[in-house]
Automatic annotation (TrEMBL):
UniProtKB keywords: DNA-binding
Organism: Enterocloster clostridioformis
Coiled-coil regions, chain positions: none
MF-aspect GO terms: ATP binding; DNA binding; phosphorelay response regulator activity
Protein name per the record: Transcriptional regulator containing PAS, AAA-type ATPase, and DNA-binding domains
InterPro entries the record matches: Sig_transdc_resp-reg_PrpR_N
């Protein structure tokens, strides 16, 4: 079983490797770790077949778009992760107001995050209509003196000419462990399905009986050689004909 684990930022790679080394069921799977941004994922050509893919945020969405038939697991960004990034920004840069740039699903809690951290927050979601450049400019126009976000936001600001400080939202070891566990579980299920499919294929090919496979819509999807001998017209029903 093979898993591709796209590590969201370079500093996380040794942590992920360590979690994997300590993972009790690591012998069940082969995990390949690659540090890639969403742009790198768009250009990436798989060197081998993977059973499960893992990514975070935009990388997760890009993996789903490129490989729609494969299971893809998201590395979640929790409210705790965002709060930790806010504390880091406050400690390192003494920020008065922080712009959170990205697409996060815990931002309905941002009022509570302000109370907890003592830092003013504005949220600037990146989507198809608003890119990173737009969202950062919007945050600055609203008085933000620091940005927190994913690794793409970090790279954008580091490569731009602005001195605006930026903090990457980190992932906890516990999250990595949970994601790895989920990936292994799904890879096992994928393996079982492949084995069942292969067994079914062998049985249908060597059987002397005519065998049909009919889906839940009553459509014939598979008919073996003997079935085609018995019903010569079955070929016209394959792939959508009703039985």
């Amino acid at each position: 079983m093979d898993i591709l684990f796209v590590v969201p930022y370079p500093e996380l790679e040794p942590v992920v490797q360590e979690v994997y080394r300590d993972y009790p069921e690591k012998d069940k799977v082969t995990v390949e770790f690659k540090v890639m941004t969403v742009d790198m994922v768009r250009q990436y050509k798989m060197e081998r077949e993977y059973d499960v893919l893992v990514g975070r945020n935009f990388t997760f969405e890009e993996l789903k778009r490129q490989y729609p038939t494969k299971p893809v697991i998201n590395i979640p960004i929790t409210g705790y992760d965002i709060v930790q990034a806010l504390y880091e920004a406050k400690k390192m840069y003494h920020c008065r107001k922080v712009g959170i740039v990205g697409r996060f699903f815990h931002m309905y809690q941002y009022e509570h995050m302000e109370e907890i951290t003592g830092v003013k927050i504005s949220y600037h979601p990146v989507d198809q209509g608003h890119d990173l450049e737009y969202c950062v400019a919007e945050a600055v126009s609203q008085g933000c003196d620091c940005i927190i976000g994913g690794y793409s936001a970090y790279l954008y600001l580091k490569n731009s000419r602005t001195d605006l400080p930026v903090v990457t939202i980190k992932v906890s070891r516990e999250t990595i462990f949970n994601v790895l566990e989920e990936a292994v579980h799904i890879a096992e299920e994928v393996k079982k399905e492949k084995e069942k499919s292969e067994l079914f294929r062998i049985i249908t090919q060597i059987s002397n009986a005519g065998i049909f496979y009919v889906n839940d819509k009553g459509q014939i999807e598979i008919a073996n050689r003997e079935a085609r001998k018995l019903f010569p017209n079955v070929q016209t029903l394959l792939g959508g004909g009703l039985i």
